[in-house]
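Encode chain A's predicted structure.
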Amino acid sequence: MAWQVGIDEAGRGPVLGPLTVGVCALPEADLHLLVEKGVRDSKDLSPTKRRKLERWFMEESDERGWFGGVITLSAERIDLALQDIGLNLLEVEGFQEALLLVPHRSSISVMADACDVNCERFSHRIAAGLPDWPWTDSTLRSEHKADERHPAVSMASILAKEARDRAVAQIEKRVGTPIGSGYPSDPTTQRALEQLCQQDRLDDDLRWGWATVKRFWEANRVGEVPIRGQGRFVQQTLFDQNGPSIT
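Encoded structure for chain A:
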């Protein structure tokens, strides 16, 4: 049986929360069921429709032996990657990890939504980290906007988006104040930075290395912007506002 595998991510641009990578696998003969059900790129669907499609896909997976899964890349992992390999190579790692969730190692056709401007390079990088690749009778390709053209990638984008939305909702519940979508342009997210980006602590789910955080810090806090993993914060005192100490 030939299997179609789709991989896509959600949350590359936000200043808050994880980047999620969704993957789905189903027989090529079943792809028409995704189309008939109305599966499209997650950006073209309402939250209600996405939730219904995710639930439907998981129910069908139980009955038909399809597969769906998500890899979550935390804000901390993103920050550390920005200090080292960069975001594109982190996404390569996420796509590799997602593909390795799939319980098939032969007769699969993988289509990934390329985050790299060079689709062929993105494909080669993913393949380079897969054990024993090429797998028997299997192919791996990447395309820009694959989530708009390939139903399996569209479904993967829905799985990724739903997982990220749940993660953001959990962060909001923990923080106890509205945080919005997490995107820098969201006014609610901008207002939430006052609580998430404090003088003595940056929230763990905030992406410390994002330019949005740096701009907020420079405009509203004192000292150098803290760097993830280095533990540098400015301690302000009521006695000496002009002479903060670094710890």
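The domain at 3-170 is CATH 3.30.420.10 (Nucleotidyltransferase; domain 5).
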